[in-house]
Each structure stands twice: as structure tokens, then as C-alpha cells.
DNA sequence: GTCTATAGAACGATAGAC
DNA sequence: GTCTATCGTTCTATAGAC
């Protein structure tokens, strides 16, 4: 298994030990599910005693919240701007976004899967903060597709549904992709970007 | 919340009390996650004492296994045949399958989400039995798309990737759909079937 | 920052009566 | 088929030493 890129979110820059722990925790949550992972298992895997974890985090749910908020904020701050800042036509920019989105999701799959799967275990106010970023992402993509439809570059029966269809395609990849298969994640990203823009949203036919 | 259709799987036909309990359990697992749902919470929600549950099931993991196997078997037995038995062209049959697939997934969303999210909590041999049905589903859809490409009715850069893209679109719906929105699940099913067949897999452009 | 020790509650599961 | 009672374990979290 390749190394996962460390989260460069500035919230962690002065406490890299916390980030190291969260890398371990996110993988344990991913593999076992939040509710089945105990503080003792986390401590054993990190290589400390359980009590030590409470020096770095307020509790198990605080770990989950930092994982969910960290990866969601980072996604919105680093990936969404591609839609406006990439080179070329609207179709070109959407393809660039889809490609980077897929690669990001694979690199951060432990954080992302944990977020989407176990978010409901958090208190409502913390859920709402994360969901706010997710909704902003959905809305931004819908508006981008809507604008492309108005300009005649995209075609879809409904911009909201087309946005969700595209998101669904992308989100499903981590459920089946394996780096030991015939395609790299970069190759999958390229083919999906083509399917999404040249087929699903095509205005040609 | 509307009533969910009862699972007609014959495994439950002589013990409908078990099925009633699993309807409650699947919703608790869906809302809280398998690991965070205790036998006492299940018993309280069903309206019995915790010990009573062990008359119907071997344990909590047995409940999860019956949910996962039941809904997966039922899907394969009832939905996959639509691909061959529906009326019309290959494109027509795929549209019918997509529509029924989406409606089925919404009706059985507690069972299905629990299955896909918490399957890894089961012993490996039980996981494998469920995964066998899921792989059969993926393979059948891939072969159907492949055949349609050979006949010139479908077009895609890769039949396996196109199959996963379609599955991803469909599976994502339950993450955002709400019956209180502007579209019914049947309307979403129709629009997605059109997007999948006339756009994503279109051979026209 | 990490440790030992432990509190207090909740966990899955079982025995045996009715 | 459901109950009462309970066993032994594990859980999250804290207090306080180093």
C-alpha cells in the first residue's frame, strides 16, 4: 500500500503528532467502522497507552470530527477552485476537476470514507458544519453545469440530477478500484473525465 | 416516512416475526451504524427484552448477515432478470432495469445501506457469500454493456468502467434523494434511465 | 507527552422459569 | 416466545505521578 499524502491543512501544522495519530485512526475507522474501534485498539496501533490519546484529543468523537472537517475543508479549498482556475473551455475545466477529484478521493480514501459513512455519529452541530461544506460542493457543481447548459456546451435533463449523477460516478470508484488492477488511478481518472464530459453531459447528440 | 415493502424472500416466509424484527434492526443500523447499536436498544425499539432477541437470532452479527444476504439475494433474483426479460431493444431493457433498480434501492434503503456499509463487520466466510452475489451483479451488467457495444447499440471507452460508472450513479441517489423534494423516486428513476442509456452509453455521437 | 490505575457504565450473551 | 437475573468483558474517560 502506497503512502498517503499528509493533510496540509493548516489546522494541523503545529501539532503534527495529532495528524500522525489521525492517519492511523482514519484507517482503523475505515476498516472496522467507527463504532467497532475502541480507544485501546487505537492506542495499540499508534503505540501508546489509551490515556495518552486524551492528551491530543477530547475523545473518540473529537477524532472523528477532526477527520471529517479536515478532509472536507481541504477538498473545498483545494479542489473546487479548479473549476474556475483551470485552463480552457468549460468542458476542459470540468474534466480537470473530475480528474483531480478522483485522484484526491483515492489518496484520502480513509478520511473520506470515514467522513461519509460515520458522520451521523457526531453531535448535530458538528454534522451541520461538515454538511455545509458538502452542500457548497454540490451547489457549486450544479451551478457550473447549469451555466454550461445555458451556454450550449453541456446538455442534461436537469442540472441538479446531472450533478448528482456525476458525483455518484466519482464517489463509487473507491468501492471497486484496486491499484493492483490493469488501470492506475490516473488512467481511471482520465477515462471517467471523458465519460462524464463527452458522454454524460455532451451537447453534441 | 412511507411503509417499506416487506421482503418476500422465502427464507422468511415461515418466521415473519424475525422479518418484523429485521425491519426495525436494519433501520437502527442504517441510522446509527452497526457498531453503535446495542442489543438493548434493539430490544427497546422492538418492544421486547434483550434476551428475547436470542430466541430469533444467534446474535447481533447474525442479524447483520441475514439483512445483507437477504437483500442481496432478493436483488439478484428479482432485478437482474429484467435485463433479459423486459420488452424491447437492449437499450429499452437496460432502461427498465435502471428504473426498477433505483426504485428497489429506495424501498429497501435501510437493508441496502447497512449491507454495503457494515458488511466488513461479518466473518470472512459470510462476507464472501454476500460479495459473491454483488460480483455476479457487476459481471452481469458489464457483460450486458459489452454485448450492446459489440452490437453497436452502446458506446463506452471500457465496458467495465462504464458498468461501474452506471452503478455509481444509481447507488448515489439514496445519499441525496428526499421524497419531500420536487421529484418522486419514480421520476428520478425515469430521468436517470434516460441519462444512463441515451447519454452515458449513447452510440449516437 | 506518556504512563499506571481505575472508575462507572454499557456491552454481548446465557441460564432457566413460565 | 418472552421473561428476570446476571455473568464476564469491554467500553470511554479521568486522576494523578513522572
The helix-and-strand class of chain A reads: mainly alpha
Tell me the fraction of residues in β-strands of chain A, as a range: under 5%
Helix content of chain A: over 70%
The parts of chain A where pLDDT drops under 50 for at least 5 residues are 1-8
Q: How widely separated are the two ends of chain A?
A: 42 Å
Got a strand count of chain A?
0
Radius of gyration of chain A over all CA atoms, rounded: 19 Å
The CATH homologous superfamily of the domain at 59-200 in chain A is named Tetracycline Repressor, domain 2
What's the architecture of the domain at 59-200 in chain A, going by CATH? Orthogonal Bundle
Q: CATH topology of the domain at 59-200 in chain A, what is it called?
A: Tetracycline Repressor, domain 2
Number of helices of chain A: 10
Description of the molecule:
The structure is a homodimer of 205-residue chains. Chain A is built from 10 helices and no strands. Chain A has 205 residues and is mostly helical. The N terminus of chain A is likely disordered. The interface between A and B is large, with 42 and 42 residues. The first copy, chain A, binds a DNA duplex (18 and 18 nucleotides) through helix 3.
Give the tags.
homodimer; 205 residues; mainly alpha; Tetracycline Repressor, domain 2; 10 helices; disordered N terminus; DNA-binding
What layout of secondary structure does this protein have?
The structure is a homodimer of 205-residue chains.
Chain A lengths: L15 H17 L6 H8 L3 H7 L3 H19 L3 H4 L4 H18 L1 H10 L5 H27 L8 H18 L8 H16 L5
Helix pairs in contact in A: 1-7, 2-3, 4-7, 4-8, 6-9, 6-10, 8-9
Chain A binds a DNA duplex (18 and 18 nucleotides) through helix 3.
Amino acid at each position: 500500500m502506497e503512502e498517503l499524502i499528509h493533510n496540509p491543512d493548516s489546522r494541523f501544522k503545529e501539532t503534527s503528532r495529532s495528524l500522525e495519530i489521525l492517519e492511523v485512526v482514519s484507517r482503523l475507522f475505515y476498516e472496522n467502522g467507527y463504532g467497532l474501534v475502541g480507544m485501546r485498539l487505537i492506542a495499540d496501533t499508534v503505540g501508546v497507552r489509551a490515556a495518552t490519546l486524551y492528551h491530543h484529543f477530547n475523545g473518540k468523537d473529537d477524532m472523528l470530527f477532526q477527520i471529517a472537517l479536515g478532509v472536507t475543508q481541504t477538498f473545498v479549498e483545494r479542489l473546487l477552485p479548479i473549476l474556475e482556475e483551470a485552463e480552457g473551455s468549460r468542458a476542459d475545466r470540468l474534466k480537470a476537476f473530475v480528474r483531480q477529484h478522483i485522484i484526491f478521493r483515492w489518496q484520502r480514501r480513509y478520511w473520506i470514507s470515514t467522513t461519509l459513512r460515520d458522520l451521523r455519529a457526531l453531535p448535530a452541530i458538528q454534522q451541520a458544519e461538515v454538511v455545509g461544506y458538502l452542500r457548497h460542493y454540490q451547489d457549486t457543481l450544479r451551478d457550473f453545469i447549469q451555466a454550461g447548459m445555458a451556454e450550449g456546451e453541456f446538455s442534461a435533463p436537469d442540472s441538479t440530477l446531472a450533478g448528482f449523477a456525476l458525483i455518484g460516478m466519482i464517489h463509487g470508484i473507491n468501492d471497486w478500484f484496486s491499484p493492483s488492477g490493469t488501470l492506475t488511478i490516473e488512467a481511471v481518472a482520465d477515462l471517467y473525465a471523458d465519460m462524464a464530459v463527452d458522454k454524460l453531459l455532451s451537447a453534441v447528440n
